[in-house]
Design brief:
Number of helices: 4
Shape: rod-shaped
Order of helices and strands: HHHH
Largest sheet: none
Helix content: over 70%
Distance between the termini: 173 Å
Structural class: mainly alpha
Radius of gyration: 55 Å
Strand content: under 5%
Oligomer: single chain
Length: 158
């Protein structure tokens, strides 16, 4: 009994599926009565997809053309990528060169500042030495005036 029921269901399903293609108007009316309108469209779409997959098998030439096209695109992409990498490398080298020049200028400026500081320190030391010498000369000059005054006063008293 269950087998007959399953067999009856299979025959009805098969008949309905055939009717969707052989008598689409009748199948659509039946589908509308039992709320299966979408099922009819899905069956048709499934058949179209099946037909496309089964009948649109590419030939050997098509496959080779597709392979050649993909290989050509891959080579173009590789070449473009290599060019972009080279451009990036050149820009990095340019930046590296600019940074090296900036470092050299910084080192030169630092050396100039250090040299200037040493010069100022040496000059300050010399100024201090000259100042000390001038103080000594001033002291000697004062002593000479004192001696000169002593001699002038003693020479005038004679």
């Amino acid at each position: 009994m269950l087998l007959k029921l399953i067999l009856l269901f299979v025959i009805a399903s098969t008949s309905y599926t055939v009717a969707v293609f052989q008598a689409p108007e009748i199948a659509d009316q039946i589908g509308a009565m039992v709320w299966l309108e979408e099922l009819n469209q899905k069956i048709r779409d499934g058949k179209n997809t099946y037909d496309t997959v089964v009948t649109d098998i590419p030939s050997k030439t098509d496959l080779l053309d597709t392979y050649s096209w993909a290989l050509g695109d891959a080579k173009d992409l590789t070449s473009d990528l290599k060019d972009k990498i080279d451009i990036t490398k050149d820009k990095i080298d340019t930046v590296r060169g600019t940074l090296w020049e900036a470092e050299q200028k910084y080192n030169d400026i630092k050396q100039t500042v250090d040299d200037t500081k040493e010069f100022i320190d040496a000059t300050t030391q010399k100024i201090d030495e000259v100042k000390g010498t001038l103080e000594q000369v001033s002291e000697i000059s004062d002593k000479i005036w004192e001696v000169t005054e002593v001699f002038s006063s003693s020479g005038s008293s004679n």
